[in-house]
Specification:
alpha+beta; four-stranded antiparallel beta sheet; about 160 residues
């Protein structure tokens, strides 16, 4: 009987330790995510509706060197590999519109994610070796703005054909 109590106490202790560690990790990840988000200053009083544009740029276009983990630095170079424009002006300018634009872009991207390799390789006009794809948006005109979202995998393309890296 005492052995069962000790085992039960040990199981409860381990469960509490794991649960508290998971909570700490989740909190730490949230804080890191907030730190890494770029602060975008948009005029909240600007209530004009504008279309939202999504653009996917490859690592080389956003200043990321091969084999290094990093975030996009500065505006991307050249044209996006893949773009998506919303059908009509529907999003307000400002941070609310910015968030809705990211959400719309993610919805579209998630639909095509299983076919991302062939889509990107068919659209890019060069060979690609171990590059990631990064999502940028353009809301209310202006420049391409990084979203801190990227495909979790690397892409490799030769002559417009996707292949395993």
């Amino acid at each position: 009987m005492i052995g069962i109590r000790r085992w039960a106490l040990l199981v409860v202790f381990l469960w509490l330790t794991i649960a508290s560690e998971a909570r700490r990790k989740l909190k730490r990840d949230e804080i890191e995510g907030l730190k890494s988000m770029e602060t975008i200053d948009y005029d909240e009083e600007f209530n004009e509706l504008e279309p939202c544009q999504c653009g996917v740029f490859m690592s080389q276009q956003v200043g990321i060197k091969e084999g290094r983990r990093s975030r996009p630095r500065g505006p991307p170079q050249g044209e996006p590999v893949v773009t998506y424009d919303t059908d009509s002006p529907s999003l307000p300018c400002g941070s609310g519109g910015f968030k809705h634009c990211i959400s719309k872009c993610l919805d579209v991207i998630l639909k095509y994610l299983p076919r991302a390799g062939p889509v990107i390789c068919g659209a890019v006009e060069r060979d690609v070796r171990r590059e990631k794809a990064f999502l940028f948006i353009k809301n209310c005109g202006g420049e391409w703005t990084p979203t801190n979202f990227s495909a979790g995998k690397e892409f490799c393309c030769t002559d417009g054909q996707h292949h395993k890296c």
